[in-house]
Amino acid sequence: MGQLFSSLMQYLFPNREYKIVMVGLDNAGKTTTLYRLHLGEAVVTQPTVGSNVECVQYKNLKFEVWDLGGQANLRPSWATYYRATDAVIVVIDSTDRARASIAKAELFTLLEHEHLQEAAILIMANKQDLKDAMNVKEMTDVLSLHSLKRHDWHIQATCAKTGEGLMDGMEWIAQRVKGEAAQAMRSPQASPAKPIAA
C-alpha cells in the first residue's frame, strides 16, 4: 500500500525536471515566449546568440526550457541540445509567409533526429495579434503538419507579447509528459505508446 501511495505521489508531484527545447527562425518570438513563461510578463529582448535557459514552473511540473538562437548560422547547432528532450516547442512567426518554407524544412529536419523520436512537438503559431497572421488551419497546411505520423504534435495560436495561448500550449505539454510518467509507472518495460496525430 505504501508503495502505491508513493507511486501516486510521484505521479501527482514529480521531482523530475522535464526538458523542453524551443526552436524557430530568428525573430519568431522565442525569447519573448521564454520570458513570458518564466516571468509572466513581456521583456525587451535581443537576438539570441547561442542559447538562453530558464526554469519554468507549470502547475506541479518543472520544465528546463532552452531557447536556441534562430539565425541561419546557428541552426546547425540545435542538434547539440536535443539529448534527453521531452518536448520541442517550435515558435513560428505567423506573419512571415516568405520564410514559411524554411521553417517547414527546419521542422522536418529536427523531427528526423534520433534524440527527438519520443519528444512531443508543440508548434506555437506566434504573433496572432497581427492582422496579416496566418491562422492555425492555414499554418497547419503550410507546414504539412498532417503528414506527421510518428510524433505526437499540436499547433497552438499564441501571442508571446500578451501571453495569449501560451498556457494552453503548456497544458498540452504537461498532459503529454504526465501521461508518459504514468505509463512508465504502470509498465517500466513496456514499449512507448504509439503517437496520436493531433
Automatic annotation (TrEMBL):
Keywords associated with the record: ER-Golgi transport, GTP-binding, Lipoprotein, Myristate, Nucleotide-binding, Transport
Q: Which superkingdom heads the taxonomic lineage of this protein's source?
A: Eukaryota
List the InterPro entries hit by this protein, alphabetically: P-loop_NTPase (IPR027417), Small_GTP-bd (IPR005225), Small_GTPase_ARF (IPR024156), Small_GTPase_ARF/SAR (IPR006689)
Query: What PANTHER family does the record tag this protein with?
Result: ADP RIBOSYLATION FACTOR-RELATED
Q: Which family does it belong to?
A: Belongs to the small GTPase superfamily. Arf family.
| Name listed for the protein in its UniProt record | G6824 protein
